[in-house]
Queue: 2 jobs
Job 1
Amino acid sequence: MVMTKEKSILRVVGISGSLRRESFNRKALQTAKKIALEMGVDVDEIDLKELNIPMYDGDIESNGFPDAVQRLRNKVESADMLIIATPEYNHSISGALKNAIDWLSTGKNILDGKTAAIFGASNGLFGTMRAQAHLRQILNALNVIIAPQPQLFIRSAKEAFALDGSLSDQKLFLQMQKLIKKTIELTVLIKENKQ
Amino acid sequence: MVMTKEKSILRVVGISGSLRRESFNRKALQTAKKIALEMGVDVDEIDLKELNIPMYDGDIESNGFPDAVQRLRNKVESADMLIIATPEYNHSISGALKNAIDWLSTGKNILDGKTAAIFGASNGLFGTMRAQAHLRQILNALNVIIAPQPQLFIRSAKEAFALDGSLSDQKLFLQMQKLIKKTIELTVLIKENKQ
């Protein structure tokens, strides 16, 4: 990968759509952070469980953004790129992730023009394929740029992770490396073009 | 419509996916309740704003359902049919509605085999068309039976409602009547078949 001056100041945030502490999506996000760090990019993780933002409600918004929402918006606003690990609940993304996206989009769309690497892990055979399809449609609505390929579906998650929580399935690990690399390159390209 | 003995004991719950007090979806739900009542069916409204259920989190679930979640599950479990008014946020349903559905589905799927009438209102030209497409996919995953037609998209909502909050657009009102009637008939048919 060609390193650029811009890349060294790339700002990236990481979000897991699953709140559970031991979730495979949190674990997958940790592996993605390590991969990005090896490429010289530090990822600032936003923990939706800790942030504990309220459900989107126009009545709340009309009184101004709650503190937790404002913190979320500030963190994402300063980023060029997002890494999103999504679980699949009932063929779509989690309410927690959707709610966070809706708070980011309302008023000024904070996500406009940013890039995202998305992936997901599940114990099923399809590895969040349907949730990711919904997530792409949702992020498309907000002008978030997602590379069409590669796509990463961490299926049979119980077998894909080692005891230390790292993504040990080598095929999936290499796919994740490609996805992160591709998205960083895309982000650098867009960032350079803006400057 | 043919009235049946079963219909008199039909249990229906109504949910708005928008929390805002003055939302068009809350208003549309009130009109749907009146229409159902005229057909002899009382609708028990579940207010997600008042219920204030937490974000789905496997760590919380492993300690048992929170009180608000248990109340939600009990109300829906005793129902034969749901009426769901969905807003469209970023081409999909609200985080609040998705979160409620996820809490209803986890462990024992409370929604299994129930029927639903779904509709939505927005100020745009498509009247929640994309959110309803996602909602159908999500509810299909849970074996919720939704009639393929009629579908109801309350577009340009500002013009569709009267000052008293009722759905005053006559074409849309008649479509809502058809939708509620069709879904009640379907529910009666399914309920009779179960007995």
Note: The mean pLDDT of chain B is 95.
Job 2
Amino acid sequence: MAKPFTYEVTKVCKQSGARLGVLHTPHGDIPTPIYMPVGTQATVKAMTSREMRDIGTKILLANTYHLHLRPGENLVKKAGGLHKFMDWDKPILTDSGGFQVFSLGDLNKISEEGVLFRNHLDGSLLNMTPEVSMQIQQDLGADIAMAFDVCSPYLCDYDKAKENMERTHRWAKRCQAAHTREDQALFGIVQGAFYRDLRAQSVETLGEMDFIGYGIGGLSVGEPKDIMYDILDHIMPMMPKDKPRYLMGVGTADCLVESVVRGVDMFDCVLATRVARNGTALVPEGRLVVRNAKYAEDFSPIEEGCDCYACTHHSRAYIRHLLNVGEITGARLVSIHNLRYLLRLMEQVREAIAQDRLLDFRREFYARFDMRGSFNRGEEQA
Amino acid sequence: MAKPFTYEVTKVCKQSGARLGVLHTPHGDIPTPIYMPVGTQATVKAMTSREMRDIGTKILLANTYHLHLRPGENLVKKAGGLHKFMDWDKPILTDSGGFQVFSLGDLNKISEEGVLFRNHLDGSLLNMTPEVSMQIQQDLGADIAMAFDVCSPYLCDYDKAKENMERTHRWAKRCQAAHTREDQALFGIVQGAFYRDLRAQSVETLGEMDFIGYGIGGLSVGEPKDIMYDILDHIMPMMPKDKPRYLMGVGTADCLVESVVRGVDMFDCVLATRVARNGTALVPEGRLVVRNAKYAEDFSPIEEGCDCYACTHHSRAYIRHLLNVGEITGARLVSIHNLRYLLRLMEQVREAIAQDRLLDFRREFYARFDMRGSFNRGEEQA
């Protein structure tokens, strides 16, 4: 039987060293570098599966913790798995719940066994372990599952970061032991906070475990972007060359471009849809707050030349009106645009790699992009 | 120059006397009987114009009062009119604001001149007169404008109902005098509450004024359905035969069928989208509360055999999950279904008239329809 998952690097950019690749999965091929829109609760917010396909989505992300709570993996399994449940026939990746351990930190208690969660909905307790995470993810049935890890905060002391990393490695082994689905790939997750030696150690240890792909966790957790880039500069050359590398939770346009230059293949982020619902559009100049009064009589599209439904059919003035009066359709139109913007950006990035001109592309990108229009993690939640 | 508006009765059902017709407008032909989805604020809630076209919508309704407040008719006019503003190239009908006078009754003061409104958004005063309503509607530029009328409540004494009706007639004349757009049809509105002689007088007076079409106002304002049908039985035979008849604000499936049998050609109602957002689907059996726990593991579509996107792609279990976790996509899918359900019902009604079997169709309709699953006006707002 042919292996269900193979990753090929099809081209290395002569100018930047960034790579083009293809990850083959049971639900189709994923071209890399790729941006993965986030469908936390088995839908990308305000979007249908058909729309996600129409805007060129190649792979979706869904959240294990949220789906475990509602509707529960048993229901999804009864439905025939996540693909059938949400009518999405392309690849899906599920996270492990590990980031929720981190981001809902005051609601849980971590031990060597796993994490005792307090369900944020009803306060009941649930025990998430590497084995439970694997069971849930196998029941959900995504193409790619992630190992259950321990994420360290930005300002974490060395000993704690080392402890979290070492536990992540032990848990990664337990995940491998518990993971049996052959039609599902398991990715390990590199940790080590902002300590270069820990990161190097994590890459080495997990590399020896021969995962199908690797997540880079614990970045974009509040640190300045330069510090994240510095860690990437340090660890990317050590990462296995023949495996896809997924920078978890990163999704501003500038970070995507900078990270691809450094060798990252996969990204996810909720920013595109979250800011959309607040009336902010992602554009080559950074951001455009469609809700602002200055667009009230602006009959141009959100982004001139964008091929999305919102830009080819509706004006800033119309969308601003919809946002202003609280119509869901306004949030929908900006969501469509923002997702398409990031997917299109990655199409352009892949094209630039194919043409050995990714550094030129980056320069052109910054010629338009106003850094004041970018986002830092967490900012968009304000 | 050919008249921009003509109405043809193309067929009368031998079994029921109901009619098939076509209303020709500058933005295309409208087959009657027809259900008009409501896009109060220049969008049907949670829907895009493209989706409205895809589900077979032939004409949309928009609200003059709401659009006057936001974004204002000046902006819509600058955009090139409502069709361009909302990217809808088929016919549009705007109401006159008269029903808002009635339904926001504690916020306004009616005189012979017009209505002094208190803007429900910011408390500022605005003066709506027949002339102002015509000016706004002409600026909005829908295909069909409605005369500015005075609606009486269900339990209105005779003298007050007569006074409101006579004022409606005087205002109808002022609307005709103020209305100058030749590419926009003006419909008069029959009033007279639940008094047969007043209704007859209103039909006669307005009939002599030779409007392009006629709204029937002041029904479905809280009365039992039988009382509404009784008024329709009384007045429909008197209505001009060569003009379209629009029963305003009526939109439950049973009322649509009963009213077509009595000779009504056009309908509008917000019920389909309003109940959708609460998780209730319209089905041949009446209603299906998708949100209910009993559908948690039901992998069948909302309505077996329905051709809408929701029913051909998604299960009750999935949609229930989305509603249950508060995802907009859930409200969207039920909205698509509910609108398509009413549009499809009217397609079936037109087909039954064409085949001279509308009374058979009505019998078949009631064989499945549980009246306990119907709605009365206002109930869906609870």
Note: The mean pLDDT of chain A is 95.
